[in-house]
């Protein structure tokens, strides 16, 4: 949840340039499996991008994920070009690395 402001900023800044943000909700606790609770949280936290529900952890396993949260940047060909484990906050080293890579990927053909 604490990364949502940074991810929202990326979405708002780059959505018209082709960046597609998709949240994947893989619940840590049982009450987080309730879709209505997730919908309420999405509204309350002003999440402007789609959020997939991964209650069975299929996406989690497909990415061989181990940590909450983890962010993946996937290029136009579907190749994971960057991953960030832990919270993301604007104006940090990780933020600057990610923004720089997004800028580079925007210029790639495809």
Word description of this protein:
By secondary structure, this protein is α+β, with helices and mostly antiparallel strands. The chain has one domain: Glutaredoxin. It contains 4 helices and 4 strands, in the order H-E-H-E-H-E-E-H. A two-stranded parallel sheet has the order 1-2. The longest helix is centred in the last third of the chain and has 15 residues. The mean pLDDT is 96.
Summarize this, please?
This protein is an alpha+beta fold. It contains four helices and four strands.
At CATH level 2, the architecture is 3-Layer(aba) Sandwich
Strand arrangement within the widest β-sheet reads: 1-2
The helix tally amounts to 4
Globally, the shape reads: globular
What's the CATH H-level superfamily name? Glutaredoxin
Distance between the termini: 32 Å
* Low-confidence runs of at least 5 consecutive residues: none
Order of helices and strands: HEHEHEEH
CATH C-level label: Alpha Beta
**CATH structural fold name:** Glutaredoxin
Helicity range of the residues? 25-40%
Give the mean pLDDT: 96
User: What is the radius of gyration computed over CA atoms, rounded to a whole number of angstroms?
Assistant: 14 Å
| Domains, number | 1
Percent of residues in beta strands? 15-25%
Tell me about the largest β-sheet: 2 strands, parallel
Structural class: alpha+beta
Number of strands: 4
